[in-house]
Amino acid sequence: MLFFVIFGENGLVDLNLLREQRDSLLEKNRILEQESLSLYREIDRLKHDLKYIENVARQELGMIKKEEVIFKLKNSRKKKDAE
């Protein structure tokens, strides 16, 4: 009888496996909730925060304002190091 309680269907071994699965799912759920909240905040900022929109446009899309000028400088250290 003890054998069936420990190793049988719905026994202690199955109970431990189910607990591990539950804990794993709870952790995945917690991570997904954090990601969802982060995405919700970003969406809200993209809808309402003009400075954030400008920052994203500059960093991710490489956009500049009309009056701005971009200077690209050659790295003179590489030439000196090579000589």
Give a short synopsis of this structure.
With 83 residues, the chain is mostly helical.
Descriptive overview:
The chain is mainly alpha-helical and 83 residues long. The protein has four helices and no strands. The chain has helices spanning 2-7, 12-48, 50-61, 76-82. It starts with a helix and ends with a helix. The model has no long low-confidence stretch (mean pLDDT 85).
Write the layout of secondary structure elements.
Layout: H1 2-7, H2 12-48, H3 50-61, H4 76-82
**What is the N-to-C succession of helices and strands?**
HHHH
Helix amount: over 70%
Tell me the count of domains: 1
Strand content: under 5%
Supply Rg.
28 Å
Ranges where pLDDT stays below 50 over 5 or more residues in a row are: none
Overall SS class: mainly alpha
Total strands: the figure is 0
Indicate the overall shape: elongated
What oligomerization state is this entry in? single chain
Ends distance: 84 Å
Could you tell me the mean pLDDT?
A: 85
Q: How would you characterize the largest beta sheet?
A: none
Number of separate helices? 4
